[in-house]
Amino acid sequence: MAHTPKVVITGASSGIGRATAVTLHAAGWDVVAIARRGDELERLADELGHERIETVTLDVRDGDAVRRLRAVVGVPDALVNSAGGARGLERADAAQWDDWQWMIETNVLGLVRLTHLFLPDMVARGSGTIVNVGSVAGEFPYPGGNVYGATKAFVRQFTLNLRADLAGTGVRVTDVEPGMVGNTDFSRARFGGDEARAQAVYEGMTPLRPEDVAEVIAFVLSRPAHVVINTISLMPSDQGFGPFHVVRRSEDVRASS
Ligand code: 8X3
């Protein structure tokens, strides 16, 4: 009987993680869907017909819960680190400490924790693919991006440093870096549930859909074993780059927020 590949996906209850679960399931993968919200995972399992889908309710910030995964999951063929998000868009001096801590604990520590858990077994087996969901914010700074962008820069460099360590082991690592993605909880969470503010982010433009990113992840995973994609950056065609911001002497820097 042909081997059915198994993928562990974090952040699988919504957005890119959920779309990736649906896309890979349709491509024949066994999916282990991980997220904080058990009710949303249950809805996903219902949608996928409770076949080739396992759900685990946990927060990637919870080290003990993550460690228990190894016994439950074994050695997956792929890990998609999609759990993460942004909290706040304030200028750095007005940012909330809790928001900064949450982003570092989730986007950085959570992703590293999952990777550290599965990597040794993948290397021992000589195969496996890890896809990290980074962001264009990890490469391009923008006002209010402060810690969020820095966590995604970490994800990018961690991915590349893993590549440096893992060349020749059969284990591949890729950073998929999307720009604006609509129809997710991303902006709602960034603005503390403020629906109107979240909607305004995507007003008058067409953002990426979570499925667009999921298809890229599926593409990465479906390359033959000798091909590794280091990074992929994608944006909606309505998104571009801003000019450098220059503060003129007439402006009061302290007041411009
Ligand atoms: C978020 C991408 O462009 O909305 O990861 O900041 S963007």
Measured between the Cα atoms of the first and last residue, the distance is: 61 Å
Mean pLDDT across residues = 96
What is the radius of gyration? Answer: 19 Å
Overall number of strands: 7
Which regions are unreliable across 5 or more consecutive residues at pLDDT < 50? Answer: none
Largest sheet: 7 strands, parallel
Derived from helix and strand composition plus strand pairing, the structural class reads alpha/beta
What does the model show?
There is one protein chain. The chain has about 260 residues and is an alpha/beta fold. It has one domain (about 5-255): Rossmann fold (3-Layer(aba) Sandwich), CATH 3.40.50.720. The chain is about 40% helix and about 15% strand. It has helices spanning about 15-25, 40-45, 65-75, 95-125, 145-165, 185-190, 195-200, 210-220; strands at about 5-10, 30-35, 55, 80, 130-135, 170-180, 230-235. A 7-stranded parallel beta sheet has the order 3-2-1-4-5-6-7, with helices on both faces. It starts with 5 loop residues before the first strand and ends in a 23-residue tail after the last strand. The mean pLDDT is about 95. It binds 2-hydroxyethylsulfonic acid. 2-hydroxyethylsulfonic acid binds near residues 135, 136, 137, 179 and 180.
